[in-house]
TrEMBL record, chain A:
The species this protein was found in: Rhodovulum euryhalinum
Source taxon at top rank: Bacteria
Cross-referenced Pfam families: DUF2849
Protein name as it appears in the record: Uncharacterized protein DUF2849
InterPro entries (alphabetical): DUF2849
TrEMBL record, chain B:
MF GO annotations: 4 iron, 4 sulfur cluster binding; heme binding; metal ion binding; oxidoreductase activity
Protein's name according to its UniProt entry: Sulfite reductase (NADPH) hemoprotein beta-component
Annotated InterPro entries: NIR_SIR_4Fe-4S, NiRdtase/SiRdtase_haem-b_fer, Nit/Sulf_reduc_fer-like_dom_sf, NO2/SO3_Rdtase_4Fe4S_dom, NO2/SO3_Rdtase_4Fe4S_sf, NO2/SO3_Rdtase_FeS/sirohaem_BS
UniProt KW Metal-binding keyword: yes
């Protein structure tokens, strides 16, 4: 927590299908980062993370991820998080002529 | 091939029942994630970047058509219609849902397959030469020994919590196609005087501290295999470091304690283990060996029928000499330029299963280079096999060439990765396809890993690429001169890394430099590298010059 640069969002993987999910202002989980609550205050981030970790029946491995504002909502700061938001670019390229 | 005995069947079914219960308890909250995680990993279930991933073992890379069809069914029914073959002869499903995994495991158990010990600090899937039982250069078939090791290591009570994961590879041929020197234990069958035995090496491994295995026993009589391997594991289990996971592999023990010390300890323990086994392993091996009889005789002409230029080009690259003059070993490339290396669709799996059943003695192999092998095909049947493969998008004539790239899943899938591997592999393969150069270049190994853990075996490639992240940007380091064979070598780093935009051009410059430097088409990349060293290649990479041979 101490090294996280604000603002942040709370993210995790869905327990049932493993999808990346983000915590919304209403305390629900969304599959879109655009819906995430952007948290600019360290104490609140701690509180939200603790609440997320407690939802072990819905998500796995909740953590805080840095974001910066973008034209369509928050954008991840970390490279890994950007890939996580985007999904594998090669999802269907293995499906070739045989299909 | 080996068929499950009642014991195997009961064990695997019991494990699926246990795991089904564990999944239920995780979902209803009786198990926390911390409690559940080691249980799911013991059953091959990872949580990756975008989804769960189920890693299924293909013991020593061997499948029959029924198993391949079942993998296709699993991919269609519970995943997204494809699977990914790995460098350790496993298949990974990238999109399973937690609730479905017990059903997937039950479906796998229906055909004698499982995901046990494909993760965790235990003995992993034992890998072997994909041409086993077929290669002309084979001394003895390694598969019965691999199966014996599989049975011995599966759920072995002493070795479920080793200091770190433990990988064993075995080959029975003169050429090492199983990268034995990059494994914790590497086994090479030898014949000495009329006796069959093993050269045993230990302490090989890639990852952040790449090391080649060192020979602990130059000749181990084959009858002593299990007691000796158990002695090695026993010593490692007791003395391997548990204080630091990065120093926990047996290679670090070899490095820190010295091979001689370790050898003495292993030999002392071996005296006890050999007495303890008391011949039970020999009886088991005798039972197993019967499952690996050569395929029923099926004669044909010793020449390959004529065909189109495409067919002939494919024969030139994708066939290997079989022990029988009227047969060939077919490598089916999963590296059609632009495709994801090692990915295969369910439809393709079914085509491969059909071909194995009709033309290949019901035998399929997965190679560590992430291709599929039909080990026994009559030469007379090659045109029909080629035709069917071409219809399924599986007829790329590039086995062993520069576009036959090993690539780990990288940051497109893997939670540990630091950079993407797959798009780099795709772009390099497409570039060389456009250049129409790779047949002139000849055999050349190019391997890509998306992080320091080196699942893509970049250290042992002629050209190795390691993807890293620097300040939010992917950068790709290059190593040259790695060798996975009996003349094994760890590649040397060329210097500063290349951006994603630069890396394809950098590879092209290296390949062109090799063409300039080699004395003739017979001189391999490894031979040129040993002769001229890194210098001329660095020149073309970093100084924009032409490669000059100062040697």
């Amino acid at each position: 927590m101490s090294r996280i640069v604000l603002p942040v969002v709370v993210t995790a993987n869905d327990l049932f299908d493993g999808d990346p999910v983000w915590l919304t202002p209403g305390g629900n989980w969304s599959r879109s980062l655009a819906d995430a609550e952007v948290i600019g205050e360290a104490g609140l981030a701690e509180t939200r993370l603790a609440a997320a970790v407690a939802q072990a029946n819905r998500v796995v491995g909740a953590y805080l991820a840095g974001v910066r504002p973008g034209p369509f909502g928050p954008c991840p700061v970390e490279f890994r998080e950007r890939l996580r938001v985007r999904g594998p670019a090669i999802l269907t390229s293995g499906l070739c002529a045989a299909e | 091939m080996y068929a499950y005995a009642e014991f195997d069947e009961d064990f695997v079914r019991a494990r699926v029942r246990q795991f089904r219960d564990q999944v239920e308890r995780r979902i209803d909250g009786r198990l926390t994630e911390d409690e559940f995680k080691p249980l799911r990993l013991m059953n091959g279930l990872y949580l990756q970047l975008h989804a769960y991933m189920l890693r299924v073992a293909i013991p020593y890379g061997t499948l029959n058509s029924r198993q391949m069809r079942q993998l296709a069914m699993v991919a269609d029914r519970w995943d997204r219609g494809y699977g990914h073959f790995t460098t350790r002869q496993n298949i990974q499903f990238n999109w399973p849902r937690l609730r479905d995994v017990p059903d997937m495991l039950d479906a796998l158990a229906d055909v004698g397959m499982h995901a046990i010990q494909t993760s965790g600090n235990c003995v992993r899937n034992v890998t072997a030469d994909p041409f086993a039982g077929a290669a002309a250069d084979e001394i003895a078939d390694p598969r019965p020994y691999a199966e014996l090791l599989r049975q011995w290591s599966t759920d072995h009570p002493e070795f479920q919590f080793l200091p770190r994961k433990f990988k064993i590879a075995i080959t029975g041929a003169e050429e090492d196609r199983a990268v034995t020197r990059a494994h914790d234990i590497g086994l090479r069958l030898l014949r000495q005087g009329g006796e069959t035995g093993f050269e045993v090496s230990i302490g090989g491994g890639l990852g952040r501290t790449p090391m080649l295995g060192r020979v602990i026993r130059a000749f181990l009589p084959e009858a002593d295999l299990l007691p000796y391997v158990e002695a090695i594991l026993g010593v490692y289990n007791r003395l391997g470091r548990r204080d630091n996971k990065y120093k926990a592999r047996i290679k670090i023990a070899v490095h820190e304690m010295g091979l001689e010390t370790l050898r003495e300890l292993v030999e002392a323990r071996f005296v006890k283990t050999r007495a303890e086994f008391g011949g039970a392993d020999r009886a088991m091996l005798a039972g197993i060996a019967g499952h690996f009889a050569p395929p029923a005789s099926c004669h044909g002409p010793e020449t390959i029928p004529p065909g189109s230029p495409a067919f002939r080009a494919w024969c030139d690259t994708n066939l290997t000499r079989h022990r029988r003059a009227d047969h060939a070993i077919v490598t089916v490339s999963l590296k059609t330029p632009g495709q994801v290396p090692g990915d295969v669709t369910a439809a393709q799996m079914r085509v491969l299963a059909d071909l194995a059943e009709r033309y290949g003695h019901d035998d399929l192999r997965i190679s560590h280079r992430q291709n599929v092998v039909l080990p026994h095909v009559r030469k007379a049947d090659l045109p029909a096999v080629f035709e069917a493969l071409a219809g399924a998008g599986l007829a790329a004539a590039n086995a062993g060439l520069v576009s036959d790239i090993i690539a780990c899943p990288g940051l497109d899938y893997c939670a540990l990765a630091t950079a993407r591997s797959i798009p780099v592999a795709q772009r390099i393969a497409l570039r060389f396809e456009a250049l129409k150069l790779e047949h002139e270049v000849g055999p050349l190994r190019l391997n890509i890993s998306g992080c320091i853990n080196a699942c893509g075996h970049h250290h042992v490639a002629d050209i190795g690429i390691l993807g890293l992240e620097r300040a939010g940007v992917e950068t790709y380091q290059m190593t040259l001169g790695g060798d996975p064979t009996v003349t094994a070598a760890i590649g040397e780093r060329t210097g500063p890394g290349f951006s994603s935009d630069e890396i394809v051009g950098a590879v092209e410059r290296i390949v062109l430099a090799y063409l300039d430097l080699r004395r003739d088409a017979e001189e391999t990349f490894a031979e040129v590298f040993r002769r001229v060293g890194l210098g001329p290649f660095q020149q073309v990479l970093y100084e924009g010059g032409e490669a000059t041979d100062a040697a």
